[in-house]
Amino acid sequence: MNGWLCAAAVVLAGGVGATVWGVATGPLRRRVVAQNLCTALACPGLLLLSQGYDRPSYVDLALVLALLGPVGTLVFARLLADELAGDPPRARGVTWAVAGLGAAVVAALCVAAGPSRETGKLLVVGALLIGGNVMASRALSGGFGGVRGG
Asked: pTM of the entire structure?
């Protein structure tokens, strides 16, 4: 077992395990935030597994997850808007902590990959992961000020 696989095990077992528990139990506001954070933690886990096993196809899975995970959260936010309006979820600190983890993983993998086409793909995955999950978290907490209907 190398360091990449050890880091992936920590991210997947600790982070994703906790968010799956959050999705399965508790009030609606915690379940929706946990679903968003689960995708935000699974994506860096896939990236670390890709480096650990030397399988570039895992980066493609992470790319799809980074793209579709926040979209799923936005769909839930739209469908559950009435239930979440009275007591919107607040997860600013956790969202930024997970975004920082994603940025650290992407930066470490970019350094390990060196200047190559793979680095460009990793940067795209990182931008989608961080931007998408921050936007989805903001949409869950009541939308954006000054935007009509949101």
From this structure: 0.86
pLDDT (average), residues 88-105:
86
Torsional class of 128: left (φ above 0), alpha (ψ -120 to 50), beta (otherwise): alpha
Domain ranges across the chain: 3-140
Residue 122 structure tokens = 């990793």
Q: Which residues contact 96 (CB under 8 A, 6 or more apart)?
A: 134
- Digit-coded pLDDT (tens) for 22-60: 888 878 888 888 888 888 899 999 999 999 999 988 999
DSSP code per residue over 34-89: HHHHHHHHHHHHHHHHHHHHT-THHHHHHHHHHHHHHHHHHHHHHHTHHHHHSS--
Residues 134, 24, 17: CA angle, nearest 5 degrees: 65
Nearest alpha carbon to residue 9 among 32, 102, 17: 17
- Which pLDDT score, from 0 to 100, does residue 90 have? 78
